[in-house]
């Protein structure tokens, strides 16, 4: 696959040795060509008849000391050259594991399956564009013993500057790095805080940053209505009101059908800057109203709701990657190995969706500074 080779030469150009780049090519080709489970043995069989290939892929994945960060920066640039990036978003994925030795594995209650899982928790940063949502950076939650047991950390090769222990911490770290490196010209950040138990921390961080954001929020989120209210009220109170202060209603088409949307001016603190609260009620569906907070006060409700859908698109992409791209199929226990695998899977997904796209004349140079 010459196209894959050219892609690997571009994305993995910072790998110092030719044998590393050759293994990256084999791993990428195996991810793309192997149906079903992407085990090292099956991927090796898809790319070579040599009996040494499975061991070579294993060493490249888990033992080879290549830095995944410049690869992710190159991937972000490559994606931005091929699709207009309208927003950044984050989404978490639970990766079930057997046993207790894989890095970051712990037991957590899954809101999706409504049962306790033995799993890793990864959080991806996605570029949301026209018809695509692609991960370009990752964090791994390291709770409990993964932060305190030095012997365990050394066995998993976790560096001293380890990653956050919670999903919220992973989100904040991804946003922090992007804001520090990307500057003012990054697209808006989109987050679904209804899925984060401590989403208020993320909301406070986004508001304080001054960067454009769109956040779906729980109905208990406190806001100050426009008009000089001295006390905050929960979003749920505004949802229940028949008439919202300074609000207007309009029908907004969405992917799952038209939404009746009302919006009003609010503040997150009594003397804070103006924000907008949008309350969307799906028509024709038995769903609760959803609430979206944003500091994009001059952007149309239609565009804000389109941006808010980025979080759903990222979750859809994760489900597809678990099914088709080998996201769950990491064979290893180490911290570097996990990041290597997530980088390779993300690159394979990008090539799968955009490999035939023609690069645009302009890209977003700030995207290359991530990770």
How far is the N terminus from the C terminus? 29 Å
Q: Which regions are unreliable across 5 or more consecutive residues at pLDDT < 50?
A: 242-256
Could you tell me the radius of gyration in angstroms? Answer: 22 Å
What summary fits the major beta sheet?
12 strands, mixed
If helices are DSSP runs of H or I spanning 4 or more residues, what is the number of helices? 13
- Could you tell me the strand content as a percent range? 15-25%
Helical residue percent? 25-40%
Keyphrases for this structure?
371 residues; alpha+beta; 3 domains; 12-stranded mixed sheet; 24% strand
Describe this structure as you would to a colleague.
The chain has helices spanning 2-11, 18-33, 40-47, 53-63, 68-82, 145-148, 150-155, 167-182, 199-209, 235-240, 301-308, 310-324, 335-354, and strands at residues 85-96, 106-110, 115-129, 132-140, 189-192, 213-217, 222-225, 233-234, 248-254, 257-267, 274-282, 290-294. The protein has 371 residues and is of the alpha+beta class. The protein folds into 3 domains: 1-66, no CATH class; 68-165 and 172-182 and 316-358 and 365-371, no CATH class; 185-312, no CATH class. Strands 1, 2, 3, 4, 5, 6, 7, 8, 9, 10, 11 and 12 form a 12-stranded mixed β-sheet that branches. Strand 11 (274-282) and strand 12 (290-294) form a beta hairpin. The protein starts with a helix and ends in a 17-residue tail after the last helix. Mean pLDDT is 86; it is low at 242-256.
């Amino acid at each position: 696959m010459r196209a894959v080779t050219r892609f690997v030469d571009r994305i993995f150009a910072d790998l110092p040795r030719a044998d590393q780049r050759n293994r990256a090519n084999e791993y990428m080709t195996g991810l793309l060509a192997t149906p079903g489970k992407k085990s090292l043995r099956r991927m090796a069989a898809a790319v070579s008849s040599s009996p040494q290939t499975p061991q070579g892929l294993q060493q490249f994945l888990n033992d080879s000391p290549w830095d995944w960060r410049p690869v992710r920066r190159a991937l972000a640039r490559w994606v931005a050259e091929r699709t207009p990036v309208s927003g950044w978003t984050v989404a978490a994925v639970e990766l079930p594991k057997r046993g207790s030795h894989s890095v970051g594995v712990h037991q957590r209650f899954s809101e999706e399956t409504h049962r306790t899982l033995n799993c890793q928790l990864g959080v991806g940063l996605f570029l949301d564009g026209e018809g695509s949502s692609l991960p370009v950076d990752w964090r791994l939650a390291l709770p409990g013993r993964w932060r305190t047991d030095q012997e365990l950390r050394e066995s998993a090769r976790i560096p001293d500057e380890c990653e956050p222990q919670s999903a919220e911490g992973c989100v904040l770290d991804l946003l922090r790095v992007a804001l520090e490196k990307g500057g003012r010209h990054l697209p808006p950040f989109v987050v679904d805080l209804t899925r984060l138990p401590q989403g208020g921390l993320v909301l406070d961080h986004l508001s304080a940053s001054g960067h454009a954001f769109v956040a779906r929020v729980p109905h208990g989120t406190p806001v100050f209505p426009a008009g000089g209210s001295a006390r905050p009220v929960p979003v749920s109170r505004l949802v229940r009101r028949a008439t919202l202060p300074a609000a207007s209603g309009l029908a907004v088409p969405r992917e799952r059908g038209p939404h009746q949307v009302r919006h009003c001016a609010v503040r997150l603190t009594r003397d804070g800057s103006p924000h907008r609260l949008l309350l969307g009620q799906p028509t024709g569906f038995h769903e609760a109203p959803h609430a979206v907070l944003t500091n994009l006060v001059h952007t149309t409700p239609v565009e804000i709701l389109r941006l808010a859908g980025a979080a759903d698109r990222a979750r859809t992409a994760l489900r597809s990657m678990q099914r088709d791209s080998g996201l769950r199929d990491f064979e290893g226990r180490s911290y570097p190995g996990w990041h290597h695998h997530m980088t390779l899977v993300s690159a394979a997904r990008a090539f799968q969706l955009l490999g035939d796209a023609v690069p645009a004349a302009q890209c977003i140079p700030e995207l290359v500074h991530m990770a």
